[in-house]
User: What shape does this take?
Amino acid sequence: MEQSRIRNFCIIAHIDHGKSTLADRMLELTGTIPPREMAEQVLDQMDLERERGITIKATAVRMTYRADDGRAYELNLIDTPGHVDFTYEVSRALAACEGAMLVVDASQGIQAQTLANVYMALEHDLAIVPVINKIDLPNAEPERVADEMTEVIGFPREEMIFASAKEGVGTTEVLEAVVRRVPAPGGDPDAPLRALIFDSKYDPYKGVIAYVRVVDGELRAGQRLRLMATGRALEPLEVGFFRPTFAPGERLGTGEVGYVASGLKTVRECRVGDTITVEGAKTTPLPGYLPAKPMVFAGLYPANADDYELLRDALEKLQLNDAALHYEPESSLALGPGFRCGFLGLLHMDIVQERLEREYGLDLLATSPSVEYRVLKTDGAEMAVDSPAELPSPQETAEIREPWMNVSIIAPDRYIGATMDLVTGRRGEFVKMDYLDHGPSVREGERRVTLEYRLPLSEMLVDFYDQLKSRSQGYASMDYSFDDYRPARLVKVEVLVNQHPVDALSVIVPAEKALAYGRAAVERLRRLIPRQLFEVPLQAAIGGRVIARETVRAMRKNVLAKCYGGDVTRKRKLLEKQREGKKRMKRVGNVDIPQEAFMALLRLEK
Ligand SMILES: Nc1nc2c(ncn2[C@@H]2O[C@H](COP(=O)(O)OP(=O)(O)OP(=O)(O)O)[C@@H](O)[C@H]2O)c(=O)[nH]1
Ligand SMILES: [Mg+2]
Assistant: This one.
């Protein structure tokens, strides 16, 4: 396609405002996906996305659209996720586009990620097409939301498109706006090839598949190519575009979005953010991306120690498709060899664990999530600590600093009190408050405010978001970003089972919460550890000093007791079930701890 008739754009919005549904309508109207293959949110291809009804991965697709001016245009669309934990997906998509379609739910108005995403798009200098969606809902207030968009973000009224992705209202307007308002890609077709890798995936047959945006020159199968950062040479097996499945093609021209099947089997050499060029070309690499900074850390261990190699392989491959995932080997006395992983947030952690389990058939244990602390030692050294096991002893520690976040919450003003209570209960501090809407039409208690706070990240790791949602009856939305490190009074609480410290259960908590944490931990563990043939003491301790204690009393466990005289197949079934259960057990000293004990401790309320 002629460069002047290519449009590259992504869809951005707060979670659930209808991005993927709007993409469905565009795919239908342009005939990209035949009706018999159509499904709701068809771009959410992962099972996990379909089950949870959320987008996790950005997905690219090419459409051909015949516009009102009678010409055909090539539209490359990237649908992005809305949840704050997947912002890295959004930022990489933005760098591959000239425009962004900003979708806002007409019944909810501007939410926290709406603003976060708009600022990101503006930083990338993208043309923005504002779309007010879900106008079919009975409680939709398109006029009020339009005012809000003008006041808060500054969009002129006449640029806004009113749509219902569900009922297919406004789809043509949206496509026309893309053609007219999003600029065609720049870039020099005669220059040597430069293509930005914005995503990737591993395919057992074709090797590493790089998702690219061609910035200059052209890309063809059979060319001798080179990856600029790693210096690795490659000869692509296949070049093509997204339909949204892989559609092989002849070439990718300047400004186009598509993929290159590299044939590389080792995944480390092909990294997101790298530039592909032709062998021997004299050219400079594209800017690429800042690496994602993980905020939440946890250990991932195979429930079955024999699966360690499998887990390492799976992490390496998953990282190709999830550039925000970090990992390094770690070993735990209680859990054996595993990996310390860094995630962007709790949902990201949950999704990674679930993807590893599903896509690679693994059975995993995850330790309690932790943030990264900065520890100043008495000998003057400074170290980063993201695992309780690495924390130096209190005698060696001069100061511990923990990460604080800027948190912005948008909610109707009747929930200001409830939000304030929650934040102050988590050591947070108030920064400022602004009203979003000023119109006289707004009812008492319904005016929406943005509340800004600073909060230790560790306090947000335990059900902060759930609490916020329930205290605001679902109305509040939240966005956060890193602010700074601040000194804190923190201690490490260890949990001992039968005198053996279970390193995987250690946590770093504020000193004043240590006692409550320790008590709750042993109390809950007592209920979760099955009785053994002997008495098992459970203790919580700080630096060797016991602060709480419980005991699991001895009992003989006989699963067959219930089916005395029953038939033999039933007995066998029960025994098998017990064996199955054992697989998810971890042996500490001479005590089996079920996986649920670890999981339940993660949910411990502070
Ligand atoms: N009534 C109504 N519902 C809509 C409309 N558009 C989307 N929805 C519904 O809103 C929900 C979320 O839609 P999605 O398209 O998955 O939203 P999304 O923005 O892609 O969500 P994430 O990718 O997870 O951030 C679904 O239940 C849709 O059916 C609309 O125009 N009207
Ligand atoms: Mg979506």
